[in-house]
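I'm stuck. Protein, please.
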Amino acid sequence: MITNLNEYQEWKGKFKTSGWRFLPIFRFSFRHALKRKFSKPLLIFSLINPLFFIAAVYITSRSELKPFFEFPVFSEIRNFALILENFFNQMFFFLLLLTIFFFFFFFSEEYRTNALPLYFSRPISRWDYLFAKIGVILFLTLIYTFVPALLLVILRLVFEGSVGLNYLNWLGILIVPLTSGIFFSSMMIFVSVLVKKTRLAELTAFFGYYFLSAVAFSLFQTQENRLFYLLSPNHCLKSINSFFFSRTFENMIPVYYALPLIAALSGFFIFWVNYLLNKKEQSL
């Protein structure tokens, strides 16, 4: 018996002039990620933080519930700007979990199993591919940061009649979710191409993120220079967040250091991955 095998070698179709060629990969990756085991429990678990602060907005707006303000858990969130600042600070941990859980699942596996030739056989470009993959995680992070922040604003407006935010606070509602989302997605894509095994990459990203915080704290203890905290992405993100919501904390990094550093790291991660993908494409 003669068996004919048709192997995919190159793109035979026509190119579209549309600038939305990344959308099929975006849709497929998003649906595929939601099918991963334990994805729905993790998504539900990550709602704990938004629901807590929704309750905080409700409690602080009710005069009959003022006795609750005496509890330590509510002592620092009487001001609405501080509610938003605390919300984003607590959400960074959940964003780390979400990006680690979903991103390595649909990028690291494709990179490790050499599935990229199918993408790079010219229906799409490397930038289309990267934009689609990062876009999935950015979309997910915005759902858990920007959307709840807007909901908190609406609820505050309904309960109180005003929100009491200045222009810097309004800018923070947009910049903090975008900055953290882009940073976490670019960091994950960078780690995933350096560490080929998915489980090892996940552990490296999680413990490496907090290990840098521990290193920064140790160096600060020995030299007493707060600029050592620039080594900690977590501390930088919290400093950016606190700046936009008009709050200071001990050893806070100036935003003119923290924000450009996070932006530069995100750009470096993305362009380095693009460079590696370019080498991989040329070797086909």
Summary: The two ends are 32 Å apart (CA to CA).
